[in-house]
Design a protein that fits this description.
478 residues; 22-stranded antiparallel beta sheet; single chain; 33% helix; alpha+beta
């Protein structure tokens, strides 16, 4: 046998044996995951396995220990959101027997697929909600009206997901099976339900690291329509996020359109964009938010308000980060106390809430005492309703609060005004100013006219607040 023949035979044998080795690796990975899941209150069983080059395994995943599962779920949340520990602990201390009863015995079924040729290839999984616990299922079956809705949804595998994992079982993508349900029911009361519910094109791409959540998400459509009652839809959502904690993060969301129609009321928005970021520089925290939307419509019967475009920019700056963290913890403690005292006698509840409020007030004071600054830019185009018709209004605000000894429990207006430095500029077209003056009370219109400044085809109001003195266009107001 020559060298080429030996090499060729070796390659053939390697290719033939590779699937066995990789399949064994996949089986070992699944066995390891089964052991991990067991510690989390989940039972994974492989019901069948077939395929040589590509192996498909059918599985069943059951919540067998709801308390372990809740603890596991809590730990996941706290790993990414540690500041919420008091809130979550407060919730879990309450009586959750009904929730536990619901969780125990929930069953998901599905399949796992992997190729046995490439050891670095992704693992694909499909899973769907198969049933609730036997006790819950019995209650559903005995509920004539509820069973007509819930049982068909389970039978059609309505709540289902497709997922992709790498070989280390890190989630790479998750997509929800399209939900497109036509619901027609006649209840025992004689009431007819005729509607549709849709969730289409939902997918997440996960690029997270150990320290940060990084993900892109999209949703083509979510809608609900009940004939003669309500119509609601949100379309073409795209979002990306980088999240380290509730303060250090940034994200952007775009929404093609939002439409609500209920009880003779209508809300429509188009091309809505939202973005935000939070960051630290030398222990000083800053956060900004941008919002824009187009073709807004709000109607209540014959009353209608519309505008063509709105742009908002808000920048919060010069916050002491350590104070902010303390304030957040005090707020979480307050929320936790609120949950824990929900069923206490009124006097005991009040005492607990007063005790929780004190550190919250202290931290609010500390944050304010260190000072902060805020900027707001707003631009509104084409605002119309029955009375108003404004083509273009702009507002810019720059406000600063220096270091101080304010106490919110004894705060008064004059003290706050002496500490604030504010510059605000309101600008509108002269045509808009005339229209606005015509619809407000004459005495108020006359007062405003005393401070108005005309410049070309615009009217300006430049406000300056410093050391308690207010000026508009250079004229003192107080």
């Amino acid at each position: 046998m020559n060298k080429k023949t030996i090499l060729g035979a070796g390659i053939v044998i390697a290719l033939a044996l590779a699937p066995i080795g990789i399949k064994n690796m996949a089986d070992a990975t699944i066995d390891l995951e089964k052991s991990k899941l067991d510690k989390k209150g989940l039972l994974l069983s492989i019901d069948s396995s077939e395929g040589y080059i590509t192996t498909t395994r059918d599985f069943t995943l059951t919540i067998k220990d709801e308390k372990k599962f809740k603890e596991y779920f809590k730990n996941i949340i706290l790993a990414k959101y540690p500041a919420y520990e008091p809130f979550i602990t407060g919730f879990t201390k309450n009586d959750t027997n009904k929730f536990d009863e619901f969780l125990k015995g929930i069953v998901f079924k599905g399949n796992i697929e992997n190729t046995n040729i490439n050891p670095f290839s992704d693992i694909k999984a499909y899973t769907y909600l198969n049933k609730f616990s036997d006790e819950i299922m019995s209650k559903i079956k005995n509920d004539e009206e509820g069973s007509k809705i819930i049982l068909p949804l389970l039978e059609k595998e309505t709540l289902a997901f497709n997922m992709t994992f790498d070989r280390k079982t890190k989630l790479k993508t998750l997509s929800l099976k399209d939900i497109n349900e036509n619901i027609k029911r006649t209840f025992n009361s004689g009431k007819n339900l005729d509607g549709t519910f849709q969730i289409l094109g939902y997918k997440i791409v996960n690029n997270s690291s150990e320290k940060m959540i990084i993900a892109d998400a999209k949703l083509d459509k979510i809608s609900m329509n009940v004939k003669g009652e309500v119509s609601a839809s949100i379309n073409n959502i795209k979002s990306n996020i980088s999240y380290e904690n509730q303060f250090l993060n940034n994200g952007k969301t775009e929404i093609g359109s939002i439409n609500f129609n209920f009880d003779n009321k209508v809300i429509n928005l188009e091309n809505t964009k939202l973005s935000s970021s939070g960051f630290i520089t030398n222990e000083i925290y800053s956060a900004d938010t941008k919002i824009s939307t187009e073709n807004f419509k709000l109607a209540n019967g014959s009353n209608k308000t519309v505008f063509d475009n709105l742009d908002l920019y808000l920048d919060l700056n010069d916050l002491d980060y350590k104070n902010l963290e303390k304030l957040n913890k005090a707020y979480m403690d307050y929320e936790s106390a609120s949950i824990q005292s929900m069923y206490l006698p009124e006097d005991e509840k009040n005492n607990k809430m007063v005790a929780a409020l004190k550190p919250l007030v202290t931290e609010v004071n500390s944050l304010l005492n260190n000072g902060l600054s805020l900027k707001l830019d707003a631009n509104l185009l084409g605002l119309k309703d029955e009375k108003i018709n404004l083509k273009n209004v702009k507002l810019d605000v720059d406000a600063r609060l220096g270091k101080n000894d304010l106490n919110i429990e004894s705060l008064n207006k004059s003290t706050l005004l002496t500490l604030l430095n504010v510059k605000a500029n309101l600008q509108m077209l002269e045509e808009d100013y005339i229209n606005l003056s015509a619809i407000i009370p004459p005495q108020f219109a006359n007062l405003i006219s005393m401070y108005a400044k005309k410049e070309n085809d615009k009217v300006l109001f430049n406000l300056d607040l410093k050391k308690g003195k207010i000026e508009v266009n250079g004229q003192e107001v107080n």
